[in-house]
Amino acid sequence: MQQEADLEAAAAEAGDACREAAAALSAAAVAPEALAEYVETRRVLLISRPARMVPLGEVWRLGSLLLGTDARLYALGRATRAAERGRPNYQSVSREERREIAAAALRGGYAAGAPVNYDARELPLTPAGVSGLASADPIGVAPTGAGDGAAAVVRVRWRAGAPLEGAPSLRAYLRERVSLLVAPEFTD
Q: Whole-prediction pTM value?
């Protein structure tokens, strides 16, 4: 019973942190990037439909996480910039695939040069969602240190599979990343 209460408190804290970060980025007028779903080429009654991107919303890229303008949290997937396909040069299969993905973004209605994130996976900030996080996820639930007030907190891993001990809390991570987007500090 106590573990459920701890997970509920950790999920609520994480949700509040995401809402605060989204509000701060909106207030600072930081431009979000597009979030889309990649729909592969398909055939319908002998007619081939080219691959395209279907818009899902807008997000801010915060390191290994994407934060939606609606305060949803996503694990970073892949990204491209919308561009014309151009003529195939067949020098590299992977380059041709990247060109096709960029063209799919353009066919999805994004302006040329616009950054588009796709293959992102939503990280549910519910008690059931945070309890089901795996070590491959960029976030996880870990016990807090003594005197923190809460028994568990959502933490951000610096790489997949890394331990959560010593990792920053989601709130601290988001505050740092938001401050870098809102007021970046440049040194000579």
A: 0.85
